[in-house]
Each structure stands twice: as structure tokens, then as C-alpha cells.
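[Archive record]
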Amino acid sequence: MKLKLSLFAILLLPAIITIATPPVEEGKSIFTTRCAGCHNISKVLTGPALAGVDQRRSIDWIINFVHSSQTVIKSGDKDATALFAKFNNIQMPDHKDLSEAQIKNVVEYIKTEAKTAIAEPVAIKSPVEKTYLPIAFQNYGFLLSFFAVFALLIGVIVFAVKVNNYKKAYFQAKS
């Protein structure tokens, strides 16, 4: 009986954690992993700034657009067509695997962040314009670590080969 109860608790735990996750936190997680590469709350990047998106569009429109932007554009929707043209016909990837609730959580996160974001004027750049970050020493930490481990590995291999050669020479001299 205890085993069945323990198994039930283990199987139920992920569901409880999923249900217990606040919508804004889930929205933040999804936004960070799926949207932040092209969108920002208050800045235009490859895609439009998303602050106030819930005021400009209905939630149903947002859900449909996130699921398949090209379907909405091809349906002749004027807003979707204008966005597509404004951002140089860059196609937003489909996110059909996101549920309506997840998309609503992303919108809630955007609303929360838009309230806390400090409004600052941002120069609008062409979405195809490349911006390059200056090279900084902190960008090389992983690379330097990798080469240090690689050099150490090479050193160990060379040492092992030399020890093996000394062993062979020693045993040949003994014979």
C-alpha cells in the first residue's frame, strides 16, 4: 500500500508543480526561450516591441498569430500583412505546440514587464541591420577554459607516451 501511495505521489508531483507555477513566471520562461531572440518588451529588434500588444490586438488574434503567423497573413488580415511588410517580410516561426493558456501567460508577462519598464527613447533600426557587440575579455572565459583543458589533456597524453617509451627501453635493456 505504501508503495502504491509513494508511486502515486511521485507521479502527481510534476502535475502539482506545473499547476503551481504562476502564469507570469511561466510566461517569462516561454518568452525568454522562444521570443526574446527577436522581440523585446520596449525595443524594436528583428520583430516589433511587444509592450501594449494586448491593447493593439485581441487575445484571439495574438493566439492565432503566434500559432501560425503566415496563416493569418495569407488570410488577408491587414494588421498581420502590415507587420510582415514593416519588418521586411521576415517570417515569424510557428509555435503551434504552445497552448492558448501558455500564450496568455506570455501576454501577462509582457503586460507586467511593460508596467515596470522605464520608457526610454529607442532609435528604430532596420530589422536587417547587423549590430555587433565589441569583443570583451569576459567573452573568452569558456574558450580559455576549453583550451586549458585541451592543453592539459595533450600534456597527459605526451607524458603517458614518454613513460611508455621509457618502460619499453627499460625492459628491452633488461632482456
